[in-house]
Amino acid sequence: MKLDPLPSTRQDIVSSLDEKTTILIVDDEPSLREVAGEYFEVKGYEVLTAADGLEAMSLLESRKVDCCLSDIDMPRMDGLQLAERIRHLDASIPVVIMTGYPSLENTISTLKNGVVDFLIKPVNLNQMELSVRRVMRERDLFLRNLLLAKEVEGKHRLERINRELERKVEELHTINRIMSDFTGAGTSDEVLQRVIDLSLEITSATEARFFVFPAEGVLPFEILSTAAGNTAAAVEPAVLHLVGEASRDALPLLVAGNEGGEALPPDLASLAAVPMTIRDKVFGILTTAVRSDNGRRLDEGDLYYLSFMNQNAARAIENLALYENIYENLFSTLFAFVKAVEARDSYTQQHSNRVTEMALKISRVMGCSSEERDILRFAGPLHDIGKIGIPDNILLKPGPLTAEEFERIKAHPVIGAGIIGQLGLWEREQQIVRWHHERFDGTGYPDGLAGEEIPLLARILAVADAFDAMSSNRVYRAAMPEEKILGNIRNGAHSQFDPTVVEAFFEVYHGRQGDERQESALAGAGG
């Protein structure tokens, strides 16, 4: 049987205070049990009776009892043994001992066993009730004090849980901040700058530095530093030694408190050095330090955050390096295609660059965003890349094209968009390459888009492309006169071209002509 000396929960205590009082009368005299039982039932008590201690313990295992009145001398288990068992079972149950043979020895024994009152037989029933009332008042007071203690304990426990929860929430916030802080970085330098800035925020250190190792056996070289409120001072040789140690071991290093060891400068109260590892090699070392004796010290928690931050920063740098390498290789491949086209057709040489330059000028007049101009800057040089799929006898034909040959020429936007798509580039760039020969009235190719169905950047490139095509010598015709070019563009508004783009083109064109006249006048004045 499991012994539980006190009510264990607040609910148990409240129940003990609120329910009807149950008393257990234990005596080997049936007449006393019967008379006392009837008396207490009349008084409003619930009464249980037992002939000896063993029978009483059996009842206590299955029934709740608030007070026990027991004879001392009984067969099998006497009153003192019963009192001892009750004290171990539930110390909140008061025991009143009744005996017809009082003695000093019995009195001392009862007190040792936790008995709270001692009655002399023959016992007056009123006296028994007074004793029960007195011990129950004391019991209620004890339970109320116990309830208060439980409430205080619960309050303290709740406060501890709240403090722990706040700490966990703050820890989660810091980790989320670290994980998200490097996602928007566009260069490795930007990642490293965020590393040292964030390290001050999450550790409350006063300075942070990032070191790299130029070559084997060369001292670490500081590339970035920051300090709270002012510029970081020159790094001391003892600090460089610790940085080298962290690099050799490829493990974080913590100086929780400067006790004069390692010849550290007196103003350096605490230091952490954390390696940044990329592909199992130490790329650099981040250090954070507390330079004032303000009681703040770096600890294992700071070391954990700094290590976690370095891991995320290392992944960001590695991804950027991989992306830049892939991007450069991709550009090289695409522009190699453009060079191949230019080598076949002298007309296309520099055509794409001129078209891109004009399209960017038009886009500025039209208020396009920097992102849109970047898209034009990329797509413009590649807009005729699909001509690599057109046979020389068609691409370079000096005379007019047949209907079938023209259909082959019209395939170059689709071929170009397919090349870019196969190499995994963005959809908007593919759209410009595919649709730069669409017409505003819907009669263009390859898809017959009309009006604003054609993306704005493709409409801009269409005007720039047409202007440069008419301005250039072709194998089948010479460059057109300026008046005819401008007339064709003006007349093409609403049919071939977006009129808004045409208006922006003329603003660019007249501005350019004014600049050229001004340059000519200045040259003449100088001569």
Please outline what is shown here.
Helices cover 56% and strands 11% of the residues. The radius of gyration is 47 Å and the shape is elongated. The protein is α/β, with parallel strands linked by helices and 527 residues long.
In order across it, which strands form the biggest sheet? 2-1-3-4-5
Instruction: Kindly provide the radius of gyration, computed on alpha-carbon positions and rounded to a whole number of angstroms.
Output: 47 Å
The overall number of domains is 3
Average pLDDT, all residues: 79
Q: Main sheet?
A: 5 strands, parallel
State the end-to-end distance: 118 Å
Query: What's the total number of strands?
Result: 10
Q: How does the helix and strand content classify structurally?
A: alpha/beta
CATH topology of the largest domain: Hypothetical protein af1432
Number of DSSP helical runs:
18
Model regions low in confidence, pLDDT < 50 over at least 5 residues:
1-6, 10-18, 516-527
Query: What is the CATH class name of the largest domain?
Result: Mainly Alpha
* Helix content bin: 55-70%
Q: CATH superfamily of the largest domain, called what?
A: Hypothetical protein af1432
Descriptive account of the structure:
By secondary structure, the chain is an alpha/beta fold. It folds into 3 domains: 10-150, Rossmann fold (3-Layer(aba) Sandwich), CATH 3.40.50.2300; 188-315, GAF domain (Beta-Lactamase, 2-Layer Sandwich); 345-526, Hypothetical protein af1432, CATH 1.10.3210.10. 56% of the residues lie in helices and 11% in strands. The protein has helices at 10-18, 30-42, 53-62, 79-89, 104-112, 125-181, 188-203, 237-249, 300-344, 351-365, 370-379, 392-395, 403-409, 412-422, 427-435, 456-471, 482-491, 499-526, and strands spanning 22-26, 46-50, 67-71, 95-99, 117-120, 207-212, 221-227, 253-255, 270-278, 281-290. Helix 11 (370-379) packs across helix 15 (427-435). 31% of the residues are buried.
